Amino acid sequence: MAYKLDIFETLAAIDKRDFEFYDRLDADQKKGFAPPVAMRWLSAVSDGQTSPLYIMLTNDRANINFYEIYDHPELQYKLMASCGYGKFHRHQWVPLSGKKQQNDKVITFLERFYPEASVNELSILLNQFTRETFKEFVLGSGCTPEEEKEVIKAYERSGDKTKDKKPKAKKA
Question: How far is CA 63 from CA 35, 81, 168, in A?
């Protein structure tokens, strides 16, 4: 049975910018290192402030020519470690795009602020918002009141409606 390297241990080393982590792994552990999986976990941080930074760093540093250097997992790891922020962050899995795509109007709106980001990255960023934080972001963007209403309405139509709802109290 193939050894699976602990993804959380790997992410902690990447967050701390531990460039020697891969070198310290034994042969079985190195076989268990899955660069595409690690990069997918790395790019999504649940902290709203550093989330855009991790997306951009991962895309700009680790994702460029990623599959051309597939035969060099040590290099791939070191590129991911260069994206670390120096302290631990809670990472989350980014599922493959099997679910409904976000509204084009909302994605187009976000593209103005993150022109280098892909649609998938913008969707990840969009999932970090709650209704209130998205509304605050839109209101602070400097767009026209009509556009504000359109974008917020589009977000509410396409977004996760349960994010800001409080759980209903159970009847006794």
Answer: 10, 12, 43
